[in-house]
C-alpha cells in the first residue's frame, strides 16, 4: 500500500439518517480515511442526492450495495474502496456485510451485528475464512475512560469483581413517535427492520457489551422482565435483567426507552473486593474510582496517570472534553490502523486491535435472543445462549 | 396536657451505639421532646454510665426496659415519660414495644419493625386496640425533597408511573468486619439479632419503603437474587430484585453492603408518562425533575415553590443544607405533634400525621419475608406476602 | 461543676427570627446545653410569648437583656445561666456582650462581632481581662470538611499557598424585599442596625473568615469594588475584592446578594504549589483535592482517612449528610467543652478550643471597615486596617 | 464555485504541535473542507514530514508560508487553496495573515489575533479593504450551550445583566515546564513569541471574549492584579481583574496557569435582574439557568427547546456529548458556509456569520494591552483601550 488514506464505501446513511453522519465523521476525523463512494439509500434518487451533498463524483454513487460492491471490485487497487461501512437498519446488515466480505472488502458494521443468530454465525465464519478485518461499532467502548476502567479491572486494582450494575435509560420513546414521521422511531420499533428485540437490541446490547468489555467477564445466566409500555408498539421498550457472571459476580442490567426525561444515560458501576468503578456516558471524561479505605478518585481523560490504552484513545489535552464522536472515531482509527498494518504485511499492535469485532457481534445477538426468551420464559434462570428453540 | 415538652424514655442506645444517639438528637432538636429516662443497655452498669453521660438523674436510669415501663407508669402524669423510643437491635423491638403499648405509652420504634410477621401483626393489632400513636423511623421519608417527590407524583405531575429504580448500595461490609469488634457489623449480620435477612432487612426495607412512599404504589410480585459474598457470613449482603407494582409499573430494587467504596448511596428514580423524578440521599436537598419536552429542573429544599409538606419538613432558609438528622427529626416532630394533639383532645392535622406507622412496619416485614423466599425460590415470580410457608 | 448540662440564656431570637432558632438547635443538639432563660425580644410581650413557645418557666423570660443579666446573676450557681447567647441584629451585639462579660457570664455571639471597631476592641479587652470564654458563630468553619481543608493546608499537603478564590453569592436581595415585611431583609439593609456594610458585613465577612481559617494566612492589602444594584438601598449588595496575603498569595473575594437564583453558594478554592482544595457550602460533606500529577480526590465527612479535627466535627457515619445545623452546633459543642473544662479547673484540649473567638470578630470588623473604605477609595491598594480616618 | 469541498492551506501545525491537529479536525469534520496544502513548519524538513503524515502530495507541501501563498495563487481556481488557516505561535500570525489577505485568500487565524495593536489594526483594515472572510478561533463560543446562553440574554430572559463572573483556571504551568522540552510551555511563556502577556493573552482573552459574546456587553474599565508565581518566568501566570461594563454591570475575571490541579476550567456566570446563567467548559452540554422564583433549569445540547443557533451548533441527538472539537468545528463550519455563500454570490445567513472575526481579534488585543497596563498601573481604574503609552 502506498502512502494514502484508506478508502471507504458506505452502505446507507443517506440524507436525514442519524447514524450515517456519525460514521462519516468518525471515519474521517483523524485524516486516515476518506469516503470515496456509497450506496446511501435503497432509493436511487435519494442515494444520488446524498452523494452530491457529500461532494462525491456521480460515478461513485450507487443505487444498491450490490452494484457498489460489484463495480468497486472492478476498479484498480489504487482507486477502489478498501472497506465498506454499513450503517443501515438491522435487517440490512447481513446482506452487504456478506457481499463485501465475499468480494474481499474489509467491513465496519453498525450494531447489532445482524438480524438473527444464523446470520451472525455465518458472518463470523466468513470473517474467519477470508481473514478480512471486521469492526462492529459498539462505540461506547471507544471512550478513553472506558479503556481506563477496563485496564484497572484487568490490573486487579479493584480486586475480584462481585457486582455489576449497568443501565441505559432513554426517554425518547415514552410516546408513540413511530406513528408520526420519526424515521428513527419507525424502524427501531418495527420487528421487520429491528429484529425480535426493541430496546434490548438497540441499547440493551450496548449495556451488555460495555459490562463485558470493562470486566472481561461473561454472562452465564439471566432472568429478565421485558415490557411494552406504549400501547400499540410491537417490541419491548423497557426491560430489567438480573445477571450472573462466570466468576460468580451478580449483575443488574436495565434498558428503557420510556424513562421520560432521560437522554442517553448509559452508566456502569462495577464493584470488586477492594473498590468500585463508575462511568457515565453523559460525562464521559471522568471515571470515578471508589475505595474501601481511601478517598474517591476522579480519573480524567488524557492526564498523565492514565493507562496507555486510555491515552491512545484521547486526542487533545485534558480538560478539553472529548465526546461521542471521538469515542466512535476510536473504533475507526484502530480499525484503520489494523487494516493498514495488514496491508503492509505487518502485525497490528495490541492498540490497533482494540476495537469490537464480529465476535462481539455474535455475542450481542446471543444476548438479544437469550434476553427475549428469558423475558417470556416462566423459568427464573435462563442460560446465556438458550432460546427455547 | 400542660404546656411542656413531651417526655421520652429510651430503650437501647447506650454508649457506643450508633442509632441511639441519632434518635436522641432527632427527638430533641426541635425543643418539643426531652429525654427523661432510659434503659440504655441490657448491661445495667453500662446503662447507668450511659444515663450519667446523658445527665439523667440516677433514679430514671433503669436496668431493663421492663423495669423502666413498670416504674414509669407508676409516676404521676406530670412526671412520667409520655412515650418510649426503641433503638435496640431488631430482636429487641417487639418486647419493649408490646410492653409499652400495653402500659399505655406511645412508641417510636426503629426499623425494621420486629423479627417476624407474627410479631408484626401482633403489634399492629395492639396499636389498633390501644389507640396509641406508633411511629416507625423510616427516616429517609422525612427529607423535604422526598415529601416534594411524593406530592408531585400524587399531583400527577409526572403522569402515570411506569418504572421505578430504587437502590441502596453500601460498601462497609465488603470485608468481614463482624469478626472484629465492630458491634454494628456484628448484630446486623447475626440471624439471632437481625432476623432472616441481612442487607435486605437493614437497607432493602428502606428502599422498598421509600419507593412505596413516593409513588403510593404497592408491590404485587417480585423476583429476587440474594447472595452472600463474604465467606462465613450467614445472611445476605447483596441482593437485586425485579418488582411489579399494582398499577403495572415495573421496578428494580437493589441493596448491597459489599458495593466497595459506597457510603449510603440510597437513590430513587421514578419515571411516569410525562416526566421522571430522581432523588439521592447523599445530596438530599435537591430533587431532579426531568421532562419529556422541557429543561430538567432542580427542586431545592425550602424554596418558595415547594409543596406545603416539603416546606413543613424544612427548618432553615434554602441553601443551608439540611441533613440526615433533620430528616430523622421530622419523624419525631410529626409524631410529637400528633401525640400532643391527641393529648389535647384535638385531631392531628395531615402534616402532623406525615410519619411512618406500624402499618409501614408490617409491610416492611412482609417485604423481608417475601424477598428472602423469592431469593431462594426457583419460581420466577413470587407474590408479595408469599413466603413458601 | 456538678454533672449537668450547661445553662444558656438567650438575647434575641424571638418568634419569627431566623438565626435564633438556629442557635437554639445548635446549642442543644448534643445534649450538652439547655436553654434556661431568655430576653427574646425588645418587645416584652413578644419575649414572653416566645418563652412560652419554648416551654420556659415564665419567671425566666425577661423583657430586656439588662434585666436578664441582672436577675440571673442573683440566682444561685446551681440554677442561674452559665452563658449568654446573643442572636440579635448587629447593633445589639455590643451591649449584651459587654454586660454579660462584666457580670461574669461567658458569651456566644453571632457575627459580625458588633457595630464598629471601637466596640470590637472594647469587647476584645473585656474578654482578655475577665478570662471568660467568648465564641463568635462564624459557623461555616464548623463543617468537618472545612476542618479537613485547614488541616491539609497546615500539613503542607498542597504546598505553599499561591491563590485563593472565595465567594459567597446569594440572590435573595435581587429585589427590594426590605420595603415589604421581610424582617430579615429590613435590618440587614438598614445602616442603623447592620452597620456601615450590607452584603460585605453579612456574608463577605464569612468569606474572609473562611479563607483565613483554612489557609492560616492574613490579608495584608485589598482593592475593592462595592456596589448597590437595587435602587433605594443604602448599603452595598454586591462587591468584589482583590486580595493580597501576607505570604505573597493573591486572592479574589466576591460576595453578592443580587446573584439571582443563588441560595448560599459559599465556595472556596485554595491553590498551592502542589495541589488545590475546593469546598462548597451547599454540598458540604465533600472536599475536593486536586493534584498536579494524580487523580482528583474527594474527601468525605467522617471517613477513616480524615483528620482528627474533621472526625471530631462529625456525628454520624459517612454517607449520612451532615448539614448547616450540625456545623453550627460544632461551635457550641467546642465552646461548651471549653467552658466545662475551665469550670472544672482543667485545660481545654486543642479540639475544645477549635471555635472562632473575639479575635476573629475583631478581624472581621477590621475587614468590614477596610473593605468599605477600599470600595470608596480612589487608591488601588488599601492596607488591611486602613479606614481613611 | 462548483460543487466541491473548500480547500484549506495550513500555516504551522507540524508534527508535535497541539493546536494544528485541532484545526485540521475542526476544519474537516463536517466534510465541507479538505486540507490541500501546507507550510507546516519553519523547518522545511519537518514541514515535509508533516505533509507526508497527512497524506498530502509532496508538491503541495511548502517550506515557508510565503512560498505557499505565492505558489498557490498561481494555481488554477479549480485547484488552488481557497483559504489559509494560521495555527502558529502568536508572533507568526500577522505575517501570514497579511500575506494571505493581500493575495486574495480568506483566512482562519488562531487567537490572539497577533502580537500588538498595530498589527491588529492593520489586519482589520486589510479585511475591510479586501472584503475577504476572516475567522478568529475563539473556539469556546462555538459550543451549543454558549449560543443558548447568548440567545437567552439577548431575549431578555434573565433581565438586565448586573454581574459577570468569568474565570479560566489551569494548573499545567504550576511548575516551570518551559525549561524542559515542553514546546507548548516554551513559546507561551516567551515574550518574543507570545507577546506582552502570558496567561492573560493565552486564556484571559478567551474569558474576556466569552463574557462579551454571551452578554453582548463591552468592558469599559478595569482594575487588574497580574502576577508571576513561578520564578524565572518572564510573563504573567496568574491574574485577577475587576471589570465594569458599559451598562453598569460589574465583573470579575480571573485566569491562572498555576491553579494546581485544574485542567481547562473555563466557567462563566452571568446574573441579571431576573435570573442567572452558568456554563462550564468541562461539562459543556449543560447550561444552568437559575431563577428568582422557580426551580433551577438545566438546558441541554440539542434538545427541542433550545434556540435555533444552539441547535445549529449541534450535530448529534441530545445525550451524546459533543466536545471541544465539535465546538471548534462550528467556527470552521460557519466560516465555510459564509465563504461558500459569498463565492456563490449569495448573502450569508445570520447562522453562517455566527463566528468570531477580526473585530473580535482587535478587541482581544486591546484587552491584552489594557490588562497588562492595568496590572502595572498604580491607578485603580483603567479605561478599556488605555495603555499608558
UniProtKB/TrEMBL annotation, chains A, B, C, D:
GFO/IDH/MocA-like oxidoreductase domain boundaries: 146-278
Taxonomic lineage: Bacteria, Pseudomonadati, Bacteroidota, Cytophagia, Cytophagales
Cross-referenced InterPro entries: Gfo/Idh/MocA-like_OxRdtase_N, Gfo/Idh/MocA_oxidoreduct, GFO_IDH_MocA-like_dom, NAD(P)-bd_dom_sf
Name of this protein: Predicted dehydrogenase
Pfam families: GFO_IDH_MocA (PF01408), GFO_IDH_MocA_C3 (PF22725)
Residue ranges constituting the Gfo/Idh/MocA-like oxidoreductase N-terminal domain according to the UniProt record: 7-137
Signal peptide (residue range): none
Molecular function via GO: nucleotide binding
Highest taxon listed in the record's lineage: Bacteria
Amino acid at each position: 500500500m502506498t502512502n494514502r488514506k484508506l478508502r471507504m464505501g458506505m452502505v446507507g446513511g443517506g440524507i436525514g439518517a442519524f447514524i450515517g453522519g456519525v460514521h462519516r465523521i468518525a471515519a474521517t476525523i483523524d485524516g486516515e480515511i476518506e469516503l470515496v463512494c456509497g450506496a446511501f439509500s435503497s432509493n436511487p434518487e435519494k442515494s444520488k442526492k446524498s452523494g452530491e451533498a457529500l461532494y462525491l463524483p456521480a460515478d461513485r454513487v450507487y443505487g444498491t450495495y450490490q452494484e457498489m460492491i460489484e463495480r468497486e471490485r472492478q476498479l484498480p487497487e489504487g482507486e477502489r474502496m478498501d472497506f465498506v461501512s454499513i450503517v443501515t437498519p438491522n435487517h440490512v446488515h447481513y446482506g452487504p456485510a456478506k457481499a463485501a466480505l465475499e468480494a474481499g472488502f474489509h467491513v465496519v458494521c453498525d450494531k447489532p451485528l445482524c438480524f438473527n443468530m444464523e446470520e451472525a454465525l455465518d458472518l463470523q465464519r466468513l470473517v474467519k475464512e477470508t481473514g478480512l478485518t471486521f469492526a462492529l461499532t459498539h462505540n461506547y467502548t471507544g471512550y478513553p475512560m472506558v479503556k481506563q476502567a477496563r485496564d484497572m479491572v484487568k490490573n486487579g486494582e479493584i480486586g475480584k469483581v462481585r457486582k455489576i450494575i449497568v443501565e441505559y435509560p432513554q426517554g425518547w420513546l415514552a410516546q408513540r413517535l413511530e406513528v408520526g414521521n420519526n424515521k428513527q422511531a419507525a424502524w427501531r420499533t418495527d420487528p421487520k427492520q429491528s429484529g425480535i428485540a426493541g430496546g434490548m437490541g438497540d441499547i440493551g446490547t450496548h449495556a451488555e457489551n460495555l459490562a463485558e468489555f470493562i470486566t472481561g467477564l461473561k454472562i452465564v445466566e439471566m432472568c429478565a422482565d421485558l415490557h411494552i409500555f406504549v400501547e400499540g408498539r410491537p417490541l419491548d421498550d423497557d426491560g430489567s435483567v438480573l445477571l450472573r457472571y462466570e466468576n460468580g459476580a451478580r449483575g443488574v442490567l436495565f434498558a428503557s426507552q420510556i424513562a421520560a426525561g432521560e437522554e442517553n444515560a448509559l452508566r456502569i458501576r462495577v464493584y470488586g473486593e477492594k473498590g468500585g468503578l463508575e462511568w457515565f456516558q453523559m460525562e464521559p471524561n471522568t471515571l470515578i474510582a471508589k475505595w474501601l479505605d481511601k478517598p474517591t478518585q476522579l480519573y480524567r481523560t488524557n492526564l498523565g496517570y492514565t493507562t496507555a490504552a486510555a491515552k491512545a484513545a484521547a486526542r487533545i489535552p485534558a480538560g478539553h472534553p472529548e465526546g461521542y464522536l471521538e469515542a466512535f472515531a476510536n473504533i475507526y482509527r484502530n480499525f484503520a490502523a489494523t487494516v493498514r498494518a495488514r496491508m503492509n504485511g505487518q502485525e497490528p499492535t495490541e492498540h490497533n486491535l482494540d476495537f469490537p469485532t464480529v465476535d462481539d457481534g455474535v455475542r450481542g445477538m446471543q444476548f438479544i435472543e437469550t434476553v427475549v426468551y428469558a423475558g417470556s420464559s416462566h423459568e427464573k434462570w435462563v442460560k446465556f445462549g438458550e432460546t427455547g428453540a
